Amino acid sequence: MAEVRSNDAASRPLLVNGEALRLDIQAPRAGGGDKYEPQTVEQARDVLGPQVVATAQAVETLPRSLRASDRVYVEAKLLPNYLAASYFPTELLAHVGASPVGSRADTGLYVTKSKSVEAQTRRLIFTVSDDGLRELRRLITEGGRNRTENQAFTQIRELSEIGLPRQSDILRASSSEEPEPASAERKVWEAVLHPRSSTLGEPIPLDEETLERWFDLIQSEGGEVHRDYVRRVGGLTFTPVSVDNVRASSLSRFNPLRVLRPMPAIRPRPRFGTRSVQRLSAPTSTRPFLSTVSVAVFDGGVDTARRAGSLFSIPTHDLTTEAPDQGELDHGTGVTGAVLYGLVGPGEQASAPPLPVESYRVLPAPQIPGDLEGYWVLDQIKDAVETKGHRLVNLSLGPTLAVEDDMEPNRWTSELDQLAWEKDVLFVVAAGNDGHQDQITGLHRVQVPADMANGMAVGACDAPAPEKPWARATYSSMGPGRHGARVQPLGVQFGGSDNRMFNVLRADGSFLEASGTSFAAPVTTHALADLVTRLPRVNSSVLRAFAAHFAERPRNHVKLRDEVGYGRQPVTFADLLECAPNEAHVLYVDEIERGDLLGYQVPVPAPTSSDVQIHLTLAYASPVDPTQPTEYTSASLELVLRPHHRIHTFTPPKGRTDKKQILDIGSTAARSLLAQGWTPSQEPVAKTLGAAKTGASEAQLRDSGKWETVRHFRVTLKAGEFELPRLELSYVARRSGALDNSPTKIPFALLISVVDDSGRTDVYDSIRARFGPLRPVQRARARVQMRSASSSHWY
Predict the structure, then answer these.
(1) Is it true that the peptide bond before 607 is cis, omega within 30 degrees of 0?
(2) Is the full-model pTM beyond 0.90?
(3) pLDDT at res. 309
(4) Burial class of 498 by CB neighbour count within 10 A (0 to 12, 13 to 18, 19+)
(5) 295-576, what's its fold?
(6) What is the pLDDT of residue 559?
C-alpha cells in the first residue's frame, strides 16, 4: 500500500460494514455460441468400441476375491474440452446405472479448430453392475434405439478412453529420490478404497462385505491389517496395512482400491543451536485481551520442568502416554512461545497474549508399528478441536509428504479441510523445510496438510517485515499446492536463516537458535490472533483475506509466486488498520447462496483527474470432495468488476458485419447506433480480473483461480474510466464433478483497498463522506469491546 501516513496524526481507521453497500442487480442473459466438438460421435465410437469390449471381457475373468460384492469400478478419460462441470456425462452414466465415485488427474489433447495442445484433464471413476457394463458396451458399439438412448449415446464424444483402473495409478512407489528395491521386509502402507456408490452426489463408504474381501486378500498375501486405524473420510476408506514390497503389487489388483502408497512419517524437527544468556521478561499481565476465541498448538508440549515466572501460564494437555523428549519439548515450547508473544528476542519484555492459548503434547507419539503415529496424531488434533471449540490452530508438524499435481486423496488434508469447513476453524500450517530438495521429482513442494484449501500455509523468509532486502529462506517448501489451493504457501514469514537464526523461546525466558517454517507459522498465528481482537467481526475467511491482502509482494512477484505465495506477511496488522490519506481499506463480510448474484458498490473518491488502484482480496470457505483431486473444492465464487455504470457494449443488428463498439450509453454516438437498431449490453462493460481471458478454456480458468478459495487482484482504473464502479459476486457449486443445484450458503470476506498515488491526500475522507454506511473500526490501540452476533462469525 501507499506510504503517506508517517507525519499525519489524523486517525483513518480501516472501514468495515462494506456489505451494506450491496446493490440490487439482475443476472445477465445467458450467452455464448456453439461449442467446438473435437470429435464426432462416430469417431468416438470407433475409438471407444474396442476398449469397452476389452473392459467387459476383463471383468468377466476378474476373480471374485479382487472385486466388490456387486459392482465393478471403471474409469473413463474426459477430453480436456469437457472439463467444466456443465459437461458432465450425466445421461450416459444414468442410462447404464453407473454411479460416479471419484476422479483422477490426467492429461490429454485440448483440441480447437486451429490447434491441439496437451492439457490437464481427468479420469472419471464410476461403479457399474455387470449388466450395466454390458449395456454400456452395447450402447457404444450399436448406438441408441430411442431419444433417451440417443441423448446418452451422444455424450460418448466427451470421452477418449474407457478401461479398468491402471495399476500404475494405484501402486505408488516411495516418494524418495531413489526407487526402492523389491524387498521381503514388511512395512506400513496406506491403502485408500473407493466409495461404494454415491446418492444425490454424496459418496457412500465401501460396504462391509467388500471390505472383508480386502482384508482377506491382505492376509492371503502374508500382510496385516491395522484395523484400529481404519478411517472413513468423505466416502473414502483409509486402511493402513503392513506388507512387503513384493506382495504390494498383488494387492494393487484389487478393483475397489484407489491407491496403495508407503505411509509417510512425521516430519523431523529442526536442530537447535546455542542458548542465549539474556532472557525475555514476562508480561505485566498474562490475561488475554479477548477470551471468547481460543488458539490451540499441537506439538511437543511445553517444558514445564524449566518453566519460570509466568511466561507459559497456559493450559497444557499431555495427549501422548510417552515420556517427554527434550528435543520435542524445546520445539513445542518455542512454537507455543511464538504463538503467545510473536517475534521476540533476548532482553525484551513480552506483551500480554491477545487470545487464550492451549498446548497439546502429541509428540512423541505412542509406540505404534511403522509410521502409524501420523494417524494417531491426526486423531488427537481432530478430537481436541471438535471437543474444545478452538477457532485458530497452529500446526508446525505433519507428514513428510510433498504435494503432487496428481495428488491422490490425503487423510490429513481431507480431514482438516472438512473440519475447517464445518466448524469454521483456521489451521495455520508450516509449509515444510524441503524447499532445497530436487524440483524435478517435486520433493521441494509444500508438505501436507499445508495444501489445505480452507487452511493457510506459511513459508519462511530470511528477514522480518519491514526490513529489506528479504527473500525466501532456501529451505522453505514451495508451491504450487493442490487444485483449489494452488497458491500455497499463502505467504512467508520470518523463520530464520543461516545468516540470521530465529530466537526460539524457552520456558525459562532464555533462547535457543534454529530456523524453519515451524517458527514462521506461529509468528503469523500470533499476528492473526492479535488481529481478532481488533476487528468487530471475524471468521476464518476474514483472517485469510487479511493475510493475503497485506502481504508485501516482491517486485517480480509473478515469477516468485510459487516461492513466496502472495508475499511476506506482516509481523503485526496493527499499523495496517490505519489508512494513509491517499488510501482506504474497506472490509466486506457476507454470505452467498448457490445461484445468487450479489452486487456491491466499490467505494472510490469523488471524480478526479488521476488514476486509482484497486487492490481486492476474496477469501471464502468451501466444502471439499476428497474423491475428486482435480475437483477438490465444491464452491466457486466468481468476481466481475464493472468500472463505469454508463459504459456498455453495442452489438450491430443481425446480418451486419460491423464490429461491436464500447460507448457511453448517454453519448451522441450511442444514441445514433440505437436509432440504427444496435443493441446495448444488459450490463456495463466488465474489466478482467486475473489472467483468464474471455473464451478461455476450463483448464485456463482453473489455473487463473476459478476454484481457489483465496484470490488477490490488483487493477488500475484510468481517470475517466470509472464512475460508480461495482463488483458482482456469483456462486457456482459442483458435486462429484457435476453441477450442483442444491441450496448451500458460503461465507466470504472481501477486502478492498483504493489507492491514489498521484499525491492526492483526501481519498480516505472523500470515501467516508460519499459512503455513509461504512464505519471505521476503533483505533488500533483501543481494541474493540462490543461484538455483533452472527452464525457466520466467531463472536
Answers:
(1) no
(2) yes
(3) 63
(4) exposed
(5) Rossmann fold (3.40.50)
(6) 84
